[in-house]
Design goal:
Shape: globular
Structural class: alpha/beta
Oligomer: single chain
Largest sheet: 8 strands, mixed
Order of helices and strands: EHEEHEEEHEEEEEEHEEEEHHEEEHHHHH
Distance between the termini: 54 Å
Mean pLDDT: 93
Radius of gyration: 22 Å
CATH class of the largest domain: Alpha Beta
Low-confidence stretches: none
């Protein structure tokens, strides 16, 4: 791509995460099944697929069987199957394991996984199906045709100093013309923000609410935690005005994933999620699991928590939005990988139908939102549509709100 100023494709997918890769795989399969031959191009800003992917992650596996029906399930690089799942209330000096699960948070039968490894695996499958994947290309501009409709995207110019001046190694970005562009950038993607703003796609929607998750992978001595044993923590070091909690996932090979996720709507300007995470690790409950271990990976990721009412309109002429870019996460389960993959599959179905009809207008692509509404994405997100908003006035009020929502089918007060 470096030597070309302009290229064209039928479908351009921006982002090599689970939603973008699922879009490419299912689209390639659908086109082949219908005897159609269209170019699918996926670009990823990371140096390799998976290099910018960070997640907990405990994943519902069923959607992978749907995405890859001809693949032996044991081939998919999941980690440990969840066999023990508990919620623990922490104080500064003690802990209490809750006797029941918080509703929607039971993970028995799900799988722990490295989302980065899963994405690398999916990229291999996509490439086998004819998808063209280019890594190391950041995209910073949406292209529009003379009618003001999306017509593709442009990769970022390189060899530019911090004042915007061209250096000796300057190279202009590549314009990628596409009949359909799929925005799969993850949380608050730069181009998705531009698209939403330009076409007012969040009109009559709630403002999105974000959290920050800080995560580490440790190797620990045998016996500290079982593979497939997971804990979610509530309480310390967060106070009643700070929404969030911790997670501990026992992995294979004596590894454990630990992390703290905190809503970014906290009121204390001096609060720092990274600092809180370090304090969380010193609690007696967490520290005994990490004792004698060594941290081998770390990172952080934002998550869109606003729920169903914060999702933007998902389509415009020649463009679709999928996954975290569309705010597809269920609360309080804090799960979005399976939703991202399903949204990519539904976007692929929509794109295939539009290409077959040679109609990529908003009217044609609008079926995508209907498909989302008729899928488990809606069925999982709608009942907890007011969950996050219920905690705006603190933990106690939020708990009461959540209890009311369980009885009312999700309605708040």
């Amino acid at each position: 791509m470096n030597s070309v100023d302009r290229v064209s494709t039928d479908v351009l997918i921006i982002g090599g995460g689970p939603s973008g890769l699922a879009t490419s795989i299912h689209l390639a399969d659908t086109l082949k099944r219908n005897g159609l031959n269209h170019r699918i191009l996926l670009i990823e800003k990371g140096s390799s697929i998976g290099s910018h992917i960070l997640s907990g992650a405990v994943i519902k596996p069923a959607v992978f069987k749907e995405l890859l029906p001809d693949v032996d399930f044991s081939e998919i690089p999941f980690n440990a199957k969840v066999k023990k799942d508990s919620t623990v209330w922490l104080t500064e000096k003690s802990s209490l394991k809750l006797p029941i699960h918080v509703p929607y948070m039971n993970n028995i039968g799900n799988y722990t996984a490295s989302l980065g490894q899963l994405c690398k695996y999916l990229a291999t499958k996509a490439t086998e199906k004819g998808v063209e994947i280019y890594t190391g290309f950041a995209v910073d501009e949406i292209l529009y045709n003379k009618d003001g409709k999306v017509s593709g995207a442009k990769t970022k110019d390189t060899g530019v100093d911090h004042h915007g001046h061209e250096l000796e190694n300057y190279q202009p970005g590549t314009c990628i013309d596409a009949r359909i562009t799929v925005f799969a950038e993850g949380t608050r993607g730069s181009l998705a923000k531009m698209l939403i703003k330009k076409f007012n796609l969040n009109k009559d929607r709630n403002e999105q609410v974000y959290s920050l998750g800080v995560k580490e992978i440790w190797t620990v001595p045998s016996g500290n935690i079982e593979a497939g044993e997971i804990f979610h923590t509530m309480g310390y070091p967060l106070n009643s005005d700070e929404f969030g909690g911790g997670f501990i996932y026992g992995l294979n090979d004596n590894k454990v994933a630990v992390g703290l996720v905190v809503g970014l709507d906290f009121k204390d300007p001096s609060f720092d999620v990274h600092d809180a995470f370090q304090i969380w690790k010193t609690t007696s409950f967490v520290s005994k699991i990490l004792k004698g271990g060594k941290m081998v990976e770390y990172g952080a990721k934002t998550l869109p928590e606003g729920g169903y009412y914060a999702m933007p309109k998902l389509f415009v002429d020649n463009a679709l939005i999928v996954g975290d870019s569309a705010g597809m996460i269920t609360m309080p389960a804090l799960k979005g990988v399976h939703l991202a993959i399903k949204s990519g599959m539904l976007a692929a179905q929509t794109a295939a139908k539009a290409l077959a009809a040679n109609d990529t207008t908003e009217k044609s692509l609008g079926i995508y939102e209907t498909l989302v509404h008729d899928s488990f994405i809606y069925k999982e997100m709608y009942p907890v549509r007011n969950f996050r908003q219920g905690f705006e006035k603190g933990l106690i009020t939020g708990g009461i709100q959540f209890g009311t929502q369980l009885i009312s089918g999700g309605a708040g007060f």
